[in-house]
Every structure is written in structure tokens, then in C-alpha cells.
Design brief:
This protein has 90 residues and is mainly alpha-helical. 54% of the residues lie in helices and 7% in strands.
């Protein structure tokens, strides 16, 4: 019985250490996400309006996760060439 109690206590201690490490990892990741969001908020106004990356919400919607390679696939950067209609002068 004493041995079982000792093993149980050891397992509880290991579990608590792992739980604390997981919480710390989550907190670090949350801070990193907040940093990246702050950077995006600062640079977004600097992006060209004719770039598809000007609309970050659209890019987020078009991005998809590649399970095989464990990475995000983002749309290619594109510039939308818009031309003004020609108006004849009289």
C-alpha cells in the first residue's frame, strides 16, 4: 500500500510538472500571436492597395493548412492592375 501511495504521488508530481509546462507553452504562444497581430496591425496600412495582401481578412480566408507538410499555404502575392476608362475630350 505504501509503495502504491508513493507511485501515485510520483505520478501526480509528474503530471503537475507537465501541466505547468503546458500552461507556460500556451502563454508563450498567446504572447507570440499577440506580437504578430500587433505587427500586422502596424504594417497593414503600408501595403499597396492594389495588392491582394491589402485585405488581410481575405488572405486569412483563402489560406489553408497543409497537413502533410505541417504548414500554412498562402495565396500568391498579386497586384491588381486597374486602368481608368479612357474619356475623350472635346
Amino acid at each position: 500500500v505504501v509503495q502504491l501511495e508513493s507511485e501515485f504521488s510520483d505520478i501526480q508530481s509528474e503530471f503537475e510538472v507537465e501541466r505547468i509546462e503546458y500552461i507556460q507553452t500556451i502563454q508563450k504562444q498567446e504572447k507570440q500571436v499577440q506580437l504578430f497581430q500587433a505587427i500586422l496591425d502596424q504594417i497593414q496600412p503600408c501595403l499597396r492597395r492594389d495588392s491582394n495582401y491589402f485585405n488581410l481578412d481575405k488572405i486569412k480566408n483563402e489560406a489553408h493548412w497543409d497537413e502533410d507538410n505541417q504548414k500554412w499555404i498562402l495565396p500568391k502575392v498579386a497586384l491588381e492592375k486597374t486602368t481608368m476608362p479612357f474619356v475623350e475630350t472635346v
